[in-house]
Amino acid sequence: MRGTDEEPVPGHFRVEEAIVGPFLKEGQVLVRTLFLSVDPYMRCRMNDDTGAEYLAPWGLSECVDGGGVGVVELSRCESLSVDDMVTSFNWHWQTQCLMDEKLLQKVEPQLVDGHISYFLGAVGMPGLTALLGVREKGHVTEGANQTMVVSGAAGACGSIAGQIGRVDGCTRVVGICGSDEKCRVLVEDLGFSAAVNYRQGDVATALKESCPDGVDVYFDNVGGPISDAVIAQMNNDGHVILCGQISQYNKDVPYPPPLCDETQEALQSKNITRERFMVLNYMEKHEAGIIQLSQWVREGQIKVLETVVDGIENMGVAFCSMMKGGNIGKQIIKISD
């Protein structure tokens, strides 16, 4: 699949059997895959031009890669030993992989109380994106009576971002998602103040009811008409955390997609900041961020939601389901025990 204006389906993926070579070069390890990740950004990798310098397109008929976590089975490097748990952003969608040590990061299971898959979600890149997005671009101030709105709020990143907004001092946190069940989970399980199902009724009207004092911080994961509705209700000197635009990923448009004139005018007239956020620009803060996230998770201040699918043969199914919002929390594929 190379066209941009097309919706991915499981048939765009296929599973092949191959033998992983038994011979390790110096600096390599053989890893057994435990869990793999599917994420919205991967849709951009299905285009000839990903729209991002740091993202290479997936090659046709080549093994797909992304976030993964697993265990070292053989090692020819000093930094990693057999039975070490490791993670990588360049993990091939394979049950076993030969990998260079420079692509791997050792992780400590006790940080997540043994929930290894959390390193792909709440205590991994989505969690860091939520934490640093709120901290670097949200300007949340405890005691300032701020209202935060999160779109894509039941996803891997949004579900964590809303909880961090609450922990950091927002008076109200409102999530936008795509089902009544997701709304229930956000409010009853994750502590959101309210939730809006964008598939039911008018989003703008529901937002006015949920955000009587307007919106001060908007964590934007989706873009499109939903974001237009939120920005229209933002207060002066508010902040948009431009994290993702998943509603636009199947369209042939640049990133970030252009805004309509009315939304552009609202941003300018109300002095609202809207800067693209990329977690990779804050690498020096990742280690401390992971420690903070793991502490919150262990203490129960942040609750983790996962949707788990079994089997590497279901990677395409899981990816396409995630792109349509079929997951609650982080979409995880379990490959082995």
Automatic annotation (TrEMBL):
The EC number(s) given in the record are 1.3.1.48
* Catalytic activity of the protein: 13,14-dihydro-15-oxo-PGF2alpha + NADP(+) = 15-oxoprostaglandin F2alpha + NADPH + H(+); 13,14-dihydro-15-oxo-prostaglandin E2 + NADP(+) = 15-oxoprostaglandin E2 + NADPH + H(+); 13,14-dihydro-15-oxo-prostaglandin E1 + NADP(+) = 15-oxoprostaglandin E1 + NADPH + H(+); 13,14-dihydro-15-oxo-prostaglandin E2 + NAD(+) = 15-oxoprostaglandin E2 + NADH + H(+)
Q: What class of enzyme is it?
A: oxidoreductase
**Principal place of residence:** cytoplasm
**InterPro entries, from UniProt?**
ADH-like_C, ADH_N_2, ER, GroES-like_sf, MDR_fam, NAD(P)-bd_dom_sf, PTGR2
Compartments, record wording = Cytoplasm
Q: Which UniProt keywords apply?
A: Cytoplasm, Lipid metabolism, NADP, Oxidoreductase
Domain Enoyl reductase (ER) residue range list: 3-333
Superkingdom as given in the UniProt entry: Eukaryota
- What family is it from? Belongs to the NADP-dependent oxidoreductase L4BD family.
Task: Give a short account of what the protein does.
Answer: Functions as 15-oxo-prostaglandin 13-reductase and acts on 15-keto-PGE1, 15-keto-PGE2, 15-keto-PGE1-alpha and 15-keto-PGE2-alpha with highest activity towards 15-keto-PGE2. Overexpression represses transcriptional activity of PPARG and inhibits adipocyte differentiation.
| Protein name according to UniProt | Prostaglandin reductase 2
The scientific name of the source species is Salmo salar (Atlantic salmon)
| Gene name for this UniProt entry | ptgr2
